[in-house]
Amino acid sequence: MISWFSALPYGWAFFLATIIDILVIALPLMLAVAMIIYADRKIWAAMALRRGPNVVGPFGLLQSFADGLKVFLQETIVPSAANRGLFLLAPIITFTVALIVWAVVPFQAGVVLADINVGLLYILAASSLGVYGVILSGWSSNSKYPFYSALRAAAQMVSYEVAIGFVLVTVVLWAGSFNLSHIVMAQQGHIFGLLNGFGFNPLLFPMWVVFLISSMAETQRAPFDLTEAESELVAGYQTEYSSMSFALFWLGEYANVILMCVLNATLFWGGWLPPLNIPFLYVIPGIIWLFIKMLVFFFIFSWVRATVPRYRYDQLMRLGWKVFLPLSLLWVFLVSGVLMWMRVGIAQ
Q1: Residue 65 confidence (pLDDT) above 80
Q2: Which of 57, 137, 243, 319 ranks highest by number of CB atoms within 10 Å?
């Protein structure tokens, strides 16, 4: 894209091209968040034998935009006892962190804002910053329920990030790279040259299950939404927020949900590659395959949220520390051993 601005000095050309690339990702992502919220509500309604949004626009498609306009026009109320600066900074951090992670996500071959060699490490580092927005919102509200929620969120996100880290180690070992594009290409023709995806590998499939459940906990989706348990904490760390500050939390949460759906597809199910390694399937653009896989995983997220009851907090911690952590650590040793055996066998 820099070539489009060849008449300008290189610095300005690079700056303008980068800004356009960011907007090309960020604007469709915001539209996707609006549509995903609508889809989420429709799925819940269908599973509860209700209609869901059906008034604003055809089939209720404009309901999310109406809700957005409503919160935009509301007054932003800051509690008198709150720390005003941190109170307003918290939702900005949450929303910003949810956006910057998308810089390294490949949508198809060569279509990525920053194709860096440590893309997976970047995602781990950037996504872990999201907890600061939650902690700051809970503490700065100067209210006990948001503060309890912030403490829960900190413990929960740290607990499941550890398991996610070990799961990603197994993917990196098998793919031999931290670059997300290389990880996707390493999944091509993975099983007998027919299937595209580490998820089809019996050795890595259990790690996908751990990653899927951990990604639900990481994004604080039901049944792991202990940070927003309305029967215990009203609305958790968002209790004192209104207007656009509340909307930024909402946008950040759903942007993270979409990101986790895309990462499930990218790391375990071939990303932009078709499910089968058959030449005529490659006629369909890779971004279409990625979009289809993302929708499948989002349906799973909504299905679980609509049907599985909320965990108790001790169950949440037990699953993270006593089940997923030992299992993922064991699998790191297992995958390492299998890969060493395969390499030694090839060398002989």
Answers
A1: yes
A2: 137
